[in-house]
Every structure is written in structure tokens, then in C-alpha cells.
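Self-study notes.
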Amino acid sequence: MLAKYRGSGLLLFVYLAALVYLLVREKDRTVRALYVYLPLTVLILFMLPPVYALYSRIETDTYYRLLWLIPMGMSILYAGLKLAGRHTRIAIAVLCAAFVLCGTYTYKNINISKAANRLHLPYQTVDVCDFLLRDSGGKQIKAAMPAELVQTVRQYTSKINMPFGREMTVPRWDYWNEVYDVMEKPDTVDVQKLAAAARHTKCSYIVLSSVKKRNGDLTDYGMEYLGLVDGFDIYRFTQTEQ
């Protein structure tokens, strides 16, 4: 089971080597408890079927998070520094090799793209958020955002709350949200249901991709059209509908 969660590269093997080294060389009891005994206990519990059976009664998708209790990075660095105290050149060579073998070349990731601005956020997110904040006078607001924006909105500002977030964009989590259900799932948005769901979740604004098909106009359901920003239509509930 442990091999399933070992990650990329040789990180698990480097960590096990560091664990064995500290088990043999480290004499400080406090350090041994933190970097040797605690990780070993977590690893043993993680691989015990009864522990998994007990955990799976609650949830199965997050079982791997038990491994987050293991201070892998700190253990490897501490073991490397301890080795450096005895064999400096060997330690430097080992640590450099560990960095290369345990990692991946970041810029080969398909999600890496050239930054559009100094904030390293899509310009659409910046422009839409700035528009909403100007309209609200900088006050805390709640807006139903398209799924393609939700992950970056909170990186830009904490003044815009949303009825759903990143959790809805991961299919295997299978979460349900009334706004997401009518706003993102169907090919054609039922504007009456969207307005009702947004009102029920106390949203003041709705942001929709301008190319998203709709079966009507949100302005027929108590909303005011504010304008088009970077390909997104922005609506606001009128004061009488708040």
C-alpha cells in the first residue's frame, strides 16, 4: 500500500535511507522521537489493515493524508546536515543527488504557463474581481463565479466570497452544490433556477461566461446587467431582490 502513495522520483527511498541513518547515528532522545519513532509509528499504523478498515468507515479517499504526519523533508535535511558534520563533501554530493532524483522539472508541467501579470494570476480573474469590487465600493460581497475562475479568485482577494469553490471542480469528490448544479453542469443554463439558487445562497452577483448557453435572461428574474468583462457577463441583484 505504501508504494501507491510514494509520489514521484525516489523521494520515498531517500527518506527511508535518511530514517535508517538517523536510527543508527542520532543519539538525542528528543530528536529520535520526532524524526525516528514518530514516523515509524505512523508508517506501521498506515500499513495495518485494521487501521484502514476503521478509517474507511468514515472516508477512503483521504487515507493517504496520514502520511502528512511524517516530517519527510525535515528528516532528509536533518540527516544530510548530520552527515555533513562528519563527511562534508559526501553529504553535499548526496543532498544534491537527492534533490535531483526526488524532484521533477517544474516547467515541463502542462499547467505551467507564462505569467500574464506580476500577480501570476489570469488577467480575467483580476479584471472581473476589480469590476465587482468597484461596483460594491470595496465591500465584502458574495458572487457566483464560473468554475474556471473560482481557484484564483481567493488568491487575488478575500473580499469576494463564493457559494462553491475548488471542491466542486474535482469529479471524484462528487460534492453537490445547488448553484454549481445549475450553473456548470448543464450545457444550457436555466436562468430561473440559477437566479433562485444564487438568491438562496445569498449571492449579490452572478458572473457567467458570455459563451455559456442560457434559456432566458437573468434580468427577468430580479437582476441587473452590469456589463461584459473579458468574456464574462456580470449581473447584480437589484435592491428589491436582495
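Second protein, same conventions, sequence then structure:
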Amino acid sequence: MLNSKKIIFIELLRFFSSLMVVIWHYQHFFLPYNSNSKDSFDVLNSKMFNIFDFSFGILGVNIFFCISGFVFSYTYLNNNYISFKNFFYLRFARLYPLHFVTLLLVTIIQLININLFGGYEIYFMNDIKHFILNLFLFLGWGLEDGYSFNGPIWSVSVELFLYLVFFISIPYLKKYHILFSLPLLLFFIFIEKIDLQINDKFFLGLVLFFSGTLIFHIFKSALNKYYFLFLSILLIIVSLIGNFKITMFCPGIVMFFIFLDYKIKLKDKTEKIFEIFGNMTYASYLTHIPIQLAIILTINLLNLNFGFTLNFENTLVLFMFIILVYFISYFTFKLFEKPLNNFIKSKLVD
């Protein structure tokens, strides 16, 4: 169907999506997130962060949701039955260990901030209630008062809900294919579009995730893959006409990268590089906030002692930050994520 068990061009898209989040959150080095900054991010020349009329970060997150729908369908709808226990343990092994470690790291840094400088940095809802919500991944559910601790983890919490809905749907998706995935997607679109005074993050996530599932069924059934390419380009173009339509752009861009993977055979070295990029995405997503907090804390400590300053308006500093994030993410995956993931699976998964 595609070039390999890992869809290499989707790995590249995952990397680009995580990069969007990392770049967008560079604003945390400015007011009101960094209390010692002299400038607000709003007054800076931010054209590199706002190419279209939407925030880079949320676009990256929503592309992730759509990618997840396709990858989960590609993984689980092509295979035999998987028990809920194994499904849960696989997700736990993949997501929770790094979340737990980064949560503890952020907590330690914020405790230092509040004790030495009298306030928190970046995210300010760092009390017992929000620690418990973070610990059990009950974020993005409308229970929180604002962003807290390692803020981006809210989307992982939403993804867990999407995984549950997907697992329940697996027998019907396998049996009825498009005849089930299309009506289900249309139902979620209808619910997302009407105002029911409920959490819209869940329903937008459901729309994008099950768009990925529908993409899987369309690609699998398409005899001529160039029709698939045409549909992807059409969705992207229509999404950019008038108001930006994220529920059309995300499926369109995911479809385009799937077609690239189907059509282009890469050299082994290039595939390996793309796979490394993909491997770094989850680590970059969870470590860039602790890295920012550590940088701000270090500067605050050095300011007290040495009068050290760092100009975050300098583009070179931005690139240095990005390189640092992915350098740390590479070794986080290689030395922590992957070994612990394999260890937990060997102990818990049948």
C-alpha cells in the first residue's frame, strides 16, 4: 500500500507540525509569559510566526489529530483484533512516561521560581488542583482554570479521548469501511458546528481524527491514486479561499504527504533521516516548555549575579533555541522514550 511500515513522509509532516508548535511558543520568552522581558511579543515583527490569519501552534496540533486518525487506521484496521488491555498499555507506554517526567521537571522549576522570585513563568495555574489534572491527564476537558505546568499536554489528553472513541469504533470501521467512517465524520462535523455549550476541543479533535480514518479508507479503495492527489490539492485550495478552513486544510495536507509516500521511493539514508525527524516530535512537544522554563530561570539567576542578558528578538537566538530543542529531543527519544517504551511493552503487553 505504502512504502514501508512507517509512512516516511508522514513522519516528516509530524516533524513540521511539531516545529510549528515550537516556533509559535517562542513567544513565551516575552511578556506576559516571561516576567523579566522588556517587550511584549505583540509589538514585535511577528510575520515569521503568522503567515496566515491563524496561529501556527494550533495548526500544528490539529494536523497531529488528523495524522493520528490515519496512522491508527493504518495500524489497527489492517491487523487482527487487539484487546483493550493491550491497546491501553501500548498508548500508556508511548505517552505517559515522558509526560510524567516533564511534569515533575516543570513542577520543580516553578517551585524554584515562586520561592526565589515570587512568581511563576509562562503558565501560572500551578496549584494542587491543576497538578492533579495534569497527573491524570484530565486537561482540555473544561475542568481547568487555564493553562498550567507543561501546557501543551492538553492536546495529548484530548487525543486519549479520541483513541477511546476509535477503539470502540474499530469493529464497525473494519466491517463497513467508508459506509461507517463517512456518516460518523459527518455526525461529528454537525456536532462541532452547532453550539451545544460543550467542549469544542473534543469535537474538533474528533472531526480531524476521523477525517484521518476516512482518508485511510479512501486511499485504500482508490484505484487511481492521482484522484487522491487531486482531492488533496482541491481541499487545500478551498481551505485557503476566504476564511481559513482548518477542517479542510489538515486532511488536504495529510493526503498530499500520503500521496508523496506512495509515489516517491526514497534512498535508505533519506528515509532514516525522515524517521529520525518523526521520532523527535513527541519529545520536542513535551520538552520545549521545560527547556524554556530552564532558560528563563537560568537568565534570572545570572541576572542577579552577573548582569547577563539575552536578546530573544534576535533571529539567531530563535534558531539556536530550535536546534537546542531538537538536540535534546533526539537524545530524549533515543535514551529515554524508546528504551522505556520497549521495557513497558515487554512487561505489560501480551
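Instructor comment on the second fold: The chain has a mean pLDDT of 86.
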